[in-house]
Design brief:
This protein has about 180 residues and is an all-alpha fold. It contains ten helices and no strands.
Length: about 180
Amino acid sequence: MAKVWDTMMSALVGSNPQAFLDLVLPGSSFVKHHRNKLGISERQPDAIIQARHPIDKEFLIDREWLERRFSHMHEILRESPAYQWILDEGIEEGIQRGIQQGVQRGREEGREEGMQQGVLAMQQAAINMVIARFAELESLARARITILGDLERLQHLIIDLSIVHSPEEMKWVLLAIDADA
């Protein structure tokens, strides 16, 4: 594997693999290993290293050139075990992230659906209260109560409906329902 890497590095940057590594992978353990191998101290700033191992300015500027050079070595890199490990790790992280997002989205949808079911149940309970006490007001109750979509307002309405004593009071409570309030 080391010979493949050395061959690849020679093809990419000619006779100056250390300068290339410093440019592409600063601070990596691989770079540190090769710094030691070339006798370059980690304390030396990159400017000194580049002065000691000059890089062609065209190499620093020409991205297309770099992409062309990498495309020649792409298959070698893809076949390496390290590439497969990194790829597998990325896939696993993507799957985990997707699962977490799916669970979160499912919870949010579940909450919304639960709230909607709660609203429908409270509306039906309020309508049933009106029907049980004053059946002649059923159509008015259905028309007015179904416009409410807030659980708290429905709870207050049920309390108001439970203390009504006459059909006139019930009608007044139902007519006082305002969807915007």
